[in-house]
């Protein structure tokens, strides 16, 4: 049963106990993560987990601390204190390139594509074999172009010549070319037309169907409910709700107070 509290409660078990269970069973787990940027304390005791093959959503308004949490996972910021565990190891002290080498694919909020490289070059410069425990078919250019037909048509275009939606697709495709075991996406629907958002939703559903573990950061509730298995709602740097899509849809207090629905 989901609850609105600093520590989520599920089936009568304390939130801390539940998260500790996920800590050992999930592909990714955060436990007691605190993050500071300069003198500002942004993330407060965040605990969440992503299971193998699961799509997990981190929802919240602008300024809730979602991007800071993802940057902490990826090693750009360091938790003080807190633990970030990937499979069987704590990765909190690793640099971003070391985190990526473990099998993380990261789609940043600013997309981060190379504007002076072609679509093909953006993809091939990042290509590599599967990450730890990869058990799905390897991502190749041909598979990428099958998933993103627009990129096939634009493969000789430079990054800056693409539309916003095409740049977002390229950013996701580039992360897939790392053949990750875990895909992290920060606000992939931000600023895009509804038709493009729907295309991205369909792509995420395809990846989910292939068993890829996904952590998706969003403030778009429609995207969240269409894709995710489990939701963590963040407010002022804290997780204030954890639950399924049905539990989230049925919780008017969370929708009204934390998601402005």
Layout of secondary structure:
Elements lengths: L14 H11 L2 E10 L2 E11 L4 E5 L6 H8 L9 E4 L2 E2 L5 H6 L2 E4 L11 H6 L16 H7 L1 H5 L10 H13 L5 E5 L7 H16 L3 E6 L2 H7 L2 E6 L2 E7 H5 L2 H7 L3
Parallel strand pairs: 3-8, 3-9, 6-7, 7-8
Antiparallel strand pairs: 1-2, 1-4, 4-5, 9-10
Question: What report would you give on this structure?
Answer:
By secondary structure, the protein is α/β, with parallel strands linked by helices. The protein is built from eleven helices and ten strands. It has helices spanning 15-25, 66-73, 96-101, 119-124, 141-147, 149-153, 164-176, 194-209, 221-227, 245-249, 252-258, and strands at residues 28-37, 40-50, 55-59, 83-86, 89-90, 104-107, 182-186, 213-218, 230-235, 238-244. It has a six-stranded mixed sheet with strand order 6-7-8-3-9-10, sandwiched between helices. A four-stranded antiparallel sheet has the order 2-1-4-5, sandwiched between helices. The longest helix has 16 residues, at 194-209. Residues 1-24 and 131-135 have low confidence and may be disordered.
